[in-house]
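Re: pyridoxal-5'-phosphate structure - here you go.
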Amino acid sequence: MNGPPEPFKIKMIEHVNMPDQKKRSQVIREAGYNTFLLKSEDVYIDLLTDSGTSAMSDYQWSGLLLGDEAYAGSRNFYNLERAVQDILNYRWIVPTHQGRGAEHLMYSYLVKPGQIVPRNMYFTTSRLHVELPGGKMVDAIINEAHDPENLHPFKGNLDLKKLQGYIDEYGIDKIAFVNVEMNVNMAGGQPVSMENLRKLREFCDEYKLKIIIDATRSSENAFFIRDREKGYEDIPIVDILREMMSYSDGCIYSAKKDCLVNIGGFLATNNEDIYEHCRNMVVIYEGLHTYGGMAGRDMEAVARGLRESTSYAYLKYRINQVHYLGDLLIKAGVPIVRPIGGHAVFLNALKFLPHLTREQWPAQTLAATIYEDSAVRSMERGAVSKGRDKETGENIFPLLELVRLTIPRRVYTNTHMEYTAESIIRLYEKREAIPGLKMVYEPKYLRFFQSRFEKIK
Ligand SMILES: Cc1ncc(COP(=O)(O)O)c(C=O)c1O
């Protein structure tokens, strides 16, 4: 058997289309070889993102009918508040429409012009919300994270020496706070260890630095701590989560991932100043502080999903499915980021398409080619996502040039994983024949969403 069986059964299905080869070639060309610009109806298996794509449980769906759509003081807000207090151990919560709404409120308060924010590794929206108030995000992840083949079990860890280096270089007043992402997305879904969090807290206490966690994939990170870190083998996921968060001053959370919902987010904190400020600002940008851009029913689904995400049986099945796909590719010799992460399998496009230059956008090319071959949609996570240097305007070419095959939670079967692996293996066998792309349109912000490309003849 390929790992534990699903701890659920299916009671509703959605039909999907399988466009033929001619149609696939046409629509990907019309989409400017950018998988974000494809229509969902033209996609057979959608591995673009794990964000907002989960299948909700009957417990969550029934919660929607209990939505209290009062403008103020909805009972669902209090259910959400209690869930966050129970599971993440924060006293105060401010709901937002999704994760970037929380980033906006939290980071615009904590970052002053000219300050820097060290983070294990940048995420696109997080970095932008540090830059908009005049700050700069810098990576402080351990070197192992930049090596797709290094098998370090906690490649999301922060390097305290790098952190010390930033303090020495910029001065302590220039550090706005330290940002820690759980199961680091851009590094391949790699976890942070409890030991690293504990040491980081000691380090930051010496300098009176705040730690803000990007808790978006914290339940999946907690699973890896239980699975890989000595002393946590028998500890319930909830207790691991509470300890993780206890080393921070607050968190932002995109509920669209681990909370198993299609929309929602929040920030939470034990710091009264942060709370006061964000509670005040939320009414300008999101909505009253007891709904923050979410309907009452959505808050109920988030509250229930957050609780469900702490089931060990669920997390084991979930992460096992991601590893099932990754292992099929490894067996066929396809270069992927290892260890396989929590939410996605990342293809190493530099090794997959070594005949392309960086300006021919290997990861963008590979994502478009996979779609053309099999109607499986994936996403570029490399130089297009990284963007340009703010000062020089030059393209930044990160060491990791990846294609992300992101597995929605509780949505696809292992047969879907096998179909996906077969397409990628087929392409790997004829990789030299795959031509690169040239960028023909580039928007100013978060260019990966809307940029357009043409095939190089
Ligand atoms: C690590 C991380 N932080 C923040 C966000 C932003 O959240 P949202 O898409 O809900 O605005 C995301 C979304 O993908 C993410 O992966």
